[in-house]
Amino acid sequence: MSEQFDSSRPIYAQLVERLKAKILAGTYPPGGHLDSVRDMAAAAGVNPNTMQRALAQLETEGLVRTERTAGRYVTEDTMLIEQLRAATAEKFAEEFLEKMRGIGYSPAQVAELLARQTKGEPNHE
Amino acid sequence: MSELLTCEGLTKHYGAKTALDGVDLHIGFGKIVGLLGPNGSGKTTLIKLANGLLQPDSGSIRIAGMKPGVESKAIVSYLPDADWLPGWMRVEQLVKMFGDFYKDFDPARANEMLANLELSPKDVLKTLSKGNREKVQLILAMSRNARLYLLDEPIGGVDPAARDYILHTILSNYSKDATVLISTHLIEDIEPVLDEAIFLKEGTVFAHRSVDEIRENEGMSVDAYFREVFKC
């Protein structure tokens, strides 16, 4: 029911990452309405104040906005979402390459491995 | 009124033994607070003082500015750590009794939770297992619209699935005007729902910090931090 959290990092920071991923992946579509803080907190099994803090952070970053009476919405700024998505992908790729270097893979070997791995997989848009 | 529970220099002795020694605490509204500490650190004593079951030897304790008593009990929902309800009563009779006792009791909420945990209203309390008796007591305590919930070891005896449900219940009943104080050893289970953690050590407040702040600055979970602080 509740989500699992990495025990050594603040929960709000982990919520920020997960909520961001959902916005980037379109699970929370641009302009979409978000549930109340209390409902989102209950769904994640976390304290409402922690969820509030995570959403406030997303608001500061412009990914979420609050309408005074109507609750919270995902930004409609698809440019911003796309930029962040590209930047996040870049970061993940760097981390991945770093790990692969750690076990002695050259960039060429990594590219070859990826080509083999993704071959025949259905093309997600 | 910005504080719901205030302790100043709160001290309690049992004979020659000191249970609480100069405890200062300030707890606001809209919080879920863990009262954590090893056996004999003073958790239950603190909760009993807040509920007026014990009188302090020195210092003071206030609930929304009031001394513990009849008026404070109207806004405090207390779950003791022991069986306290009459065993001969049926669950439905207990629901009725709570409705008679407490103006803020919501029988519909109680019945919904009973149904969700598959507890039959017709069952006689003493015929239930220990875990199921605990669930009934907790449901009754959480079905009040209180300002302060004092839950003394609420999840110790119940199975993990029911534990999840109970934590979910605490979260979904959350209100900005109410605070939940939970004493427990099962830190790992309740950690994600907590705002703040109070560490009691030999009758004193060792730490009163935000859970995210502990994780950030100690680089470990509250559970791991507890194990380090109270290493035997």
From TrEMBL, chain A:
SMART domains: HTH_GNTR. The keyword DNA-binding applies. Keywords: DNA-binding, Transcription, Transcription regulation. InterPro entries: Tscrpt_reg_HTH_GntR (IPR000524), WH-like_DNA-bd_sf (IPR036388), WH_DNA-bd_sf (IPR036390). SUPFAM superfamilies: Winged helix' DNA-binding domain (SSF46785). Residues 9-77 form the HTH gntR-type domain. This is GntR family transcriptional regulator. It comes from Faecalibacterium prausnitzii.
Automatic annotation (TrEMBL), chain B:
InterPro entries: AAA+_ATPase, ABC_transporter-like_ATP-bd, ABC_Transporter_VariousFunc, P-loop_NTPase. Keywords: ATP-binding, Hydrolase, Nucleotide-binding, Transport. It holds the Pfam family ABC_tran. It comes from the Bacteria. One of its GO terms (molecular function) is ATP hydrolysis activity. SUPFAM superfamilies: P-loop containing nucleoside triphosphate hydrolases. SMART domains: AAA. Its EC number is 3.6.3.-. It is an enzyme of class 3 (hydrolase). Residues 5-227 form the ABC transporter domain. CDD domains: ABC_DR_subfamily_A. PROSITE patterns: ABC_TRANSPORTER_2. This is ABC transporter ATP-binding protein. It comes from Faecalibacterium prausnitzii. The gene is lptB_2.
